[in-house]
Amino acid sequence: MTTHPKNTTNDPATGGPAAGGSPARLTVLAGPTAVGKGTVAADIRERFPDIWISVSATTRKPRPTEVHGVHYLFVSDAEFDRMIADGELLEWAVVHKAARYGTPKQPVLAKLAEGRPALLEIDLQGARQVRETMPEAQFVFLAPPSWDELVRRLVGRGTETAEERERRLETATLELAAEKEFDVTIVNASVREAADQLVKLIRSPSITGKS
């Protein structure tokens, strides 16, 4: 696995080099629906507590196993509107033509300023927005082993209606086509192996090419 060359990371608070010359780097993980981004992030959260993982805000309703403040910040449409108006979001987007998702900005900047590596697990639209404002971050695409496996995972998790699955699969075809926009691709054939590869990238001092 190789990666594209990247610029030296700057201090997210000042725009200049971070103190000590060894800044923490923001890593952005994106990929198609049902590829397992959340599962990979959860594995990293459990096994690598030194890596801080951002908690996104969303206007969708929580699934039965999801906990507010752990998996997502579940907010009302009015609260999400306020966060946008007050400039509190690093990025936000309407996902799958339904709910809105966004990344609270201040926690990300605070962790990077502390020198702690940070991971954003977000959708493609959000990743593009972050690239505009923080191009020094590294961008990782999580891909499925195959299209059939992606469909199997989406159907198998049983959290969406047939109409929602169809909408997500339509979106997934566009998301898969965006792989070339990312610095490196990790294939999620095994959650633990994908998580280990991602942690290695997060902890690496720089990116040097693309696979």
CATH topology: Rossmann fold
Helix-residue proportion = 25-40%
CATH architecture identity: 3-Layer(aba) Sandwich
Question: CATH-wise, what's the superfamily?
Answer: P-loop containing nucleotide triphosphate hydrolases
Overall mean pLDDT stands at: 85
Main beta sheet:
5 strands, parallel
Q: Name the structural class.
A: alpha/beta
Count of all domains:
1
Shape: globular
Distance between the termini: 5 Å
- In total, how many beta strands? 11
Low-confidence stretches: 1-22
User: How many helices?
Assistant: 7
Q: What is the percentage of strand-forming residues? A: 15-25%
H-E string: EEHEEEHEEHEHEHHEHE
Q: Roughly how many Å is the radius of gyration?
A: 17 Å
Strand sequence of the main sheet, in spatial order? Answer: 3-8-2-9-10
**Given this structure, which CATH class is correct?**
Alpha Beta
Task: List the topology elements.
Blueprint: E1 3-5, E2 26-30, H1 37-47, E3 52-53, E4 57-58, E5 73-74, H2 77-85, E6 89-94, E7 100-104, H3 105-113, E8 118-121, H4 124-133, E9 138-143, H5 147-157, H6 162-177, E10 184-187, H7 191-203, E11 208-210
Parallel strand pairs: 2-8, 2-9, 3-8, 4-5, 9-10
Antiparallel strand pairs: 1-11, 4-7, 6-7
Helix pairs in contact: 1-7
